[in-house]
Amino acid sequence: MSVVLIVEDNDKNMKLARDVLQAKGYSTLEAVTGEDGVRIAKEQCPDLVLMDIQLPGISGIDALKALRSDAQTAKIPVAALTASVTPTDRSQIAAAGFDAFLSKPINLKEFLETVKRLTEGERA
């Protein structure tokens, strides 16, 4: 069973992602700050991280940089999960090196296909 770490500070978005993933058989871990997301990723080595960009503390982009700079977490796929969808936001997110981009509100079909693709080892 694949383990997905959800890093999200909005309760409703967290619940939706958790409920959808668990209904499809994924195990979930949760963090509400970028710092906690990095710490949990290092402790648990999930199969995938879904990372909000606008987080309290360090941003999702800074959290991604921390994960990529640590040999223990560098290979974990990380998908940006964000409401920031302007062309500038998307280019900054793409430049940061995320493995996928998911916009909020989530499209369930796209969300599940992306999670499946990334947990099965295929990168974008």
Task: Walk me through this protein's architecture.
The chain is of the alpha/beta class. It has a single domain, classed as Rossmann fold, CATH 3.40.50. It has five helices and five strands.
Write the layout of secondary structure elements.
Layout: E1 3-7, H1 11-23, E2 27-31, H2 34-44, E3 48-51, H3 60-68, E4 78-82, H4 87-96, E5 100-103, H5 108-119
Parallel strand pairs: 1-2, 1-3, 3-4, 4-5
Helix pairs in contact: 2-3
How can the largest sheet be summarized?
A: 5 strands, parallel
Helix content: 40-55%
For the biggest β-sheet, the strand order reads 2-1-3-4-5
Helix segment tally:
5
Number of strands: 5
CATH class placement = Alpha Beta
Structural class: alpha/beta
Beta-strand content bin: 15-25%
- Cα end-to-end separation: 21 Å
Rg (C-alpha, Å)? 13 Å
The CATH superfamily name is Response regulator
Average pLDDT confidence is 93
Low-confidence stretches: none
Predict the CATH topology.
Rossmann fold
In the CATH hierarchy, the architecture is 3-Layer(aba) Sandwich
